[in-house]
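G., the chain you wanted modeled:
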Amino acid sequence: DFNYELLRVLSEILRNVSEHAKASHLSIQIADNGIGGAQSKAGHFGLVGIHERIAKIGGDIRIDSGIEGTKISINLPLER
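Predicted structure as tokens:
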């Protein structure tokens, strides 16, 4: 399944950063070419949960959504 395999790949990348990179900061950016409107869909609470989870781990998130797609940028401090 595509989503499962993608999740496994991303998980492995994040594990490698966490365990081996000795980095103090991590930036993640995901962009698509979909129909946009990610912030305005009534009754969809997934983005609220994402914002809450990112804030809980000390990061910040920016979501830019328009007719040419959506871009999500996440910045996180890595604890050492």
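The two ends are 35 Å apart (CA to CA).

Shout if anything looks off.
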